[in-house]
What does this fold into?
Amino acid sequence: MLLKLLFRNAFRHRLRTLLTIGGIAVAILAFGLLRTVISAWYAGVEASSASRLVTRNAISLIFPLPISYKEKIRSVEGVGVVSYGNWFGGVYIDEKNFFANFAIEPRTYFNLYSEYLLSDDETAAFFRERKACVAGQKLAKRFGWNVGDTITLRGTIFPGNWDFVLRGIYQGKDKTIDDNQFFFHWDYLNETLKKNLPRRADQVGFYMIGLKRPDQAAATSEAVDGLFKNSYAETLTETEKAFQLSFVSMSEAIITVIQLVSYVIIVIIMAVVANTMAMSVRERMGEYAVFKTLGFGRGYLAGLILGESFTLTSLGGLLGIGVTFPIASAFARAVGQFFPVFHVSTETILMDVAAAVIVGVVAAVIPIWRVVQVRIADGLGRIG
Amino acid sequence: MLSNHIAVIEITDLVKSYRRGSQSIPVLEHLFLKIEEGEFLALMGPSGSGKSTLLNLIAGLDQVDSGSIRVGGEEITGLSEIELATWRAGHVGFIFQFYNLIPVLTAFENVELPLMLTGLSKKARKAHVATALSLVSLQDRMDHYPRQLSGGQQQRVAIARAVVTDPTILVADEPTGDLDRHSAEDVLRLMDQLCSELGKTIVMVTHDPRAARKAHTLKYLEKGVLTDAPQIAVPECL
Ligand SMILES: Nc1ncnc2c1ncn2[C@@H]1O[C@H](COP(=O)(O)OP(=O)(O)OP(=O)(O)O)[C@@H](O)[C@H]1O
Ligand SMILES: [Mg+2]
It folds into this structure.
């Protein structure tokens, strides 16, 4: 019966309650979306492996390294597989259709990136053909590509129209893997350059190094960079994670602001719910005094108020979490090119739940304290 | 006074004052009172004389400054707030001027409320509530919410709530203060019946001479002093 009472209390002012629940839902939704944006931002970092190193030109990422470094790097202690590639920067039909596209050495690259799942047939077909390319599942879906299609990219860094034949569609091992990328043979790029722009041939944008043991990352990076010290193209080698993070950190300030805003939203809704609870409890002070008169202890009163507060926040929270998924996927469709990995993680949902619980507790604290403090005679005086 | 009756409420040398800022306002000074089992006592007196204060002390809603209050042989002045709450739940039935029913609970649920603190099963509670509601002739209204009942009916539900736990004493602070004459008479008849037929001990604070006349004993409180004979001719004028 006390449970019934708690629900009836919660819905006594239907409009106020519905508005509060709506407010909580919107806040939880906004919180969830912002957290998802943040995790999308860090998706590349999260998915990156600690057992891979990236070697690039020490001056800047825009400057290339000679292909001749490959054998030298391979000779370094602790280095396993060495792959390499270039950021191609090709445009598909229109600038708006942005996606990441790389020229890579296929065998070593897919060896290093076992999280990109490609069937054996597709792998073989991709390796075999010089003009072959593979695309991530999401990307292929976005443009309606099927295996066998010819795809033309307009070069921006490397001029001309480049034709590729889609030989495979890869899937991410899990949802955190970016399946919005496009890969083709580095040899195809290089041979074409040799013909048209020989000055820019035999150069790579980055080397990817698979470590034999992840704990050797520091020593190996140092060894690789030491190798090219004082050469005309010095290198900077770091773990893939650090490499990805260096991109993200460029926008660290924005992330910090988003993070801050997400917490501010929770604080605001906390104030709103606390206000609703304080109003309701103040109006019912006389009733709580009756409960006290009848001998109901603090535990009961706290339970009633906390329960009512939780009723509001859990309904609002559930509603908010419920709408987060469809809205997040709509959002993902709209901004998919900027956030290749945009999905609501379990962690975000847990944070939503935690936020709802915290709001519920905080909103109930002051009303509970007031009800416990009030003298019965004073509380009764409020009726009539 | 019949000396062979047992005093169910025994107040000895009671002092109570309220603190307002730094000064203390004495309300009850060295007050003595004995109420016997089955008595229906009306407490009258001018506004601000301390009637509600006294009633609250008897009912364990407030703490005394000094003195002793024994109810049913138990000293209640030494009890902590939490102990008092438990004691009230078992020993005191409350009737208020403004009924103080919980608006979101039905008549049945309102009467059931005090039983939630007992270990009674749902079935036993149901039986108790049914008995209490039939006592106030409202068994056919048990699914009604307070707003669907008249003032008199609400007060009768409140009386059912007060007696459902079979308390040692019933306290009523101006139970007819908010009722029309007809409903007030119903409520008073009911209280009289509780006293004469069920042997309940009732302490009632009232301004209403008609209510006071229903009671068996009349006490008059003025300036912290309790007297038997009213200093104004209240009952005679009716
Ligand atoms: N909580 C309180 N704090 C300070 N003073 C109080 C408090 N409650 C009551 N008083 C004072 O104590 C005195 C007695 O109050 P009480 O309510 O007992 O009077 P009463 O006889 O019931 O009056 P009424 O007939 O108007 O109900 C009054 O002077 C009142 O102002
Ligand atoms: Mg009073």
The radius of gyration of chain A is 29 Å. Residues 2-43+251-380 of chain A form one domain.
